[in-house]
Amino acid sequence: MSSSWLTSRNRALSSVSTLFLSFLLCISEQSNAQSSPVFACDVTRNPSLAALGFCNTGLKIKARVTDLVGRLTLEEKIGFLGSKAVGVSRLGIPDYNWWSEALHGVSNVGSGTNFSGQIRGATSFPQVILTAASFNVSLFQAIGKVVSTEARAMYNVGLAGLTFWSPNVNIFRDPRWGRGQETPGEDPTLSSKYAVAYVKGLQEADGGDPNRLKVAACCKHYTAYDVDNWTDVHRFTFNAVVNQQDMADTFQPPFKSCVVDGNVASVMCSYNQVNGKPTCADPDLLSGVIRGQWKLNGYIVSDCDSVDVFYTNQHYTKTPGEAVAISILAGLDLNCYHFTDEHALEAVKAGVVNEAAIDNAISNNFATLMRLGFFDGDPKKQLYGGLGPKDVCTAENQELARDAARQGIVLLKNSAGSLPLSPSAIKTLAVIGPNAKADVTMIGNYHGDPCKYTTPLQGLAETVTSTYQPGCSNVACKEPDIGSAAALAASSDAVVLVMGEDQTIEQEDLDRVDLYLPGKQPELVTQVAKAAKGPVVLVIMSGGGFDITFAKNDEKITSIMWVGYPGEAGGLAIADVIFGRHNPSGSLPMTWYPQSYVEKVPMSNMNMRPDKPNGYPGRTYRFYAGETVYAFGDTLSYTTFDHRLIKAPRLVSLSLDKSHPCRSSECQSLDAIGPHCENADEGGSGFEVQLNVKNAGDREGSHTVFLFTTPPAIHGSPIKHLLGFEKVRLGKNEEAVVRFNVDVCKDLSVVDEIGTRKIALGHHLLHVGSLKHSLNITV
């Protein structure tokens, strides 16, 4: 071996070592960069920043914002109009990515969040539609609190932002909507309560200061947005024609509750037009309602490139600059993506928007970041600075995900002797269906990476010996293997069929065209049930409802459960319910219609109320009186609950001023504002309903007490609507008193044809379960 060869070899090794060390250094630098949160006013690195007014935490936010805006050039200001805000190094302000998502757990859908070796996943709760089915407001808020804690932990290691564009509070108006799964359902009261609780869970900082935010939530998509891509109708070009009445009593209430009651930090305007105007360019909807009437303390953001959409797809303006100008002047503060910051300068130069309007927009954005502590220096020295990887995917958080799924699961059918199954009696369990081994399907859309998955098959197999047959290779189920599935069913003590959908059938930009189980799933279900020798449990995994009349009427199918998209612990929760470790208490948050309904109702018809002369049946349980497969609120339990009315008035008399016209003439209704609506808490226009609720069965269980009202038939009033709900947990033979405080002007009012709230005078009918109570409102 020659010395020259050794020298060459040593040089080569030296070069390799140098490259390897450089690689390690690069990885180390990336890791260090990732482990640091993004923030402004880092006075440790740059002490001179302490002299800047906007870095002075002793000043009020308004003064700090004014100071910051005054220091920026026009070009620098424009850099803060887009979701990837461009920092200003001379002022110690870094780039900031506004787009993070937290629909049912921290998500990496938005470009502001990602998972890495430090934090590989976050707790993935059930998709919103299933959580809403729990009708448990405290659960809604508890989930929000966990999500915000995990979000802050990820921010502290540089993996997430502080602004999360969730929740989706649109009304699930049409059963075909692909994004209905993201919403709390079809009812404005439920959607409003969900919105407020989840927003509070995300935002409320420890210590209770309303000017501080744990993270910033965003209620979307404002407004009347519930068509994505149906036949030839697409959200980018859809004009939602909505009358004033439906706008006021169906589409707007969840957003109003977000802002007024939840103090949400942001509202997102949608892609669609409403009555011929893009929502992101409508000053009445943005400046007029959100900021003017509701007093938003925060910023208004567009859905991603909505401004570009109304220029490019809707041809609403002649130039990009005009599109930017009218959106900013309408009240838009931030544009998701780059269109606004790319064309704002040309808009200013063209004279269609001035710098003062840009100042106003970025001031709202900066004020939000200041409430989050972004301009307060090192976050690790602040309230949530101690959070980190140890606070993500904790055992407690994962157990909450399991419990949330359990609470939401809805039992729709249960023949005598079917569920719960006895683990000791079932020696062989057949688990069949395309969703039996579902993992990512269980977490729906807008998800992140979960802590871990437990599939339905895994959950069931933890309790009893289980044998699996897919029956179909996927949910499309074009070529089912009925023979193998039926043979397994025939040889097993019980069968669990896990059917339904996934994101290839319903999701953003994909609406359904019918309400049937996909492909040949119905045939597979029917034939397996026919062959089975024991109980057959049909589990439906989906966001929307189905026409499963065939299964409802099939005596061989002994039980039906809807499990939504149950999150990372879905398999455990399903098994808990099937084997009786948890007594089901979820209730449907949306109507399940027959197929005939969608065959005569265009998805693009936004009208909520029926039009009988034209054969239009109306929408949701509030206005649709036709046949249903399952109704809003439907539920079954392994026990029974009885209701008894303790207290409710028969007559409520409103006191009117002597000059009020309804004192001298007969009125059907009067405005739901004025002196007669004051002091509801002191009994002026309010009253209390008290009910005794008893668990009359032999096992403990939870129960949702619904208080509905049927108002007088004036102003196209609803058939009935939900006033409130309370979740109670009772042991066997235990009873409790449930109280509802009813404000006549707020809760018993209806909306008239021009969108004004009116108190309907005359006979109202309150219902709780089978109980009915008549109430008369007079003046």
Overall description:
This protein is 29% helix and 17% strand. By secondary structure, the protein is an alpha/beta fold. A six-stranded mixed β-sheet has the order 11-16-15-14-12-13. Helix 5 runs parallel beside helix 6 (188-203), helix 6 packs parallel to helix 8 (253-260) and helix 14 (395-408) packs across helix 19. The relative contact order is 0.10. Residues 1-33 have low confidence and may be disordered.
Task: Please give the structural blueprint.
Blueprint lengths: L2 H32 L26 H10 L3 H5 L5 E2 L10 E2 L30 H6 L3 H20 L31 H16 L15 E4 L6 E2 L2 E2 L4 E2 L3 H8 L1 H8 L5 E4 L3 E2 L2 E2 L5 H10 L5 E4 L3 H7 L7 H11 L8 H11 L5 H17 L23 H14 L1 E5 L14 E4 L23 H6 L4 E4 L12 H9 L3 E7 L20 H11 L4 E6 L7 H4 L6 E4 L7 H9 L16 H6 L19 H4 L17 E7 L3 E3 L15 E3 L14 E10 L5 E10 L10 E10 L4 E9 H4 L1 E3 L5 E4 L1 E7 L2 E8 L1
Parallel strand pairs: 3-7, 6-8, 7-10, 12-13, 12-14, 14-15, 15-16, 18-27
Antiparallel strand pairs: 1-2, 4-5, 8-9, 11-16, 17-20, 19-25, 20-23, 21-22, 21-26, 24-25, 26-27
Helix pairs in contact: 2-13, 5-6, 6-8, 10-11, 11-12, 14-19, 16-17
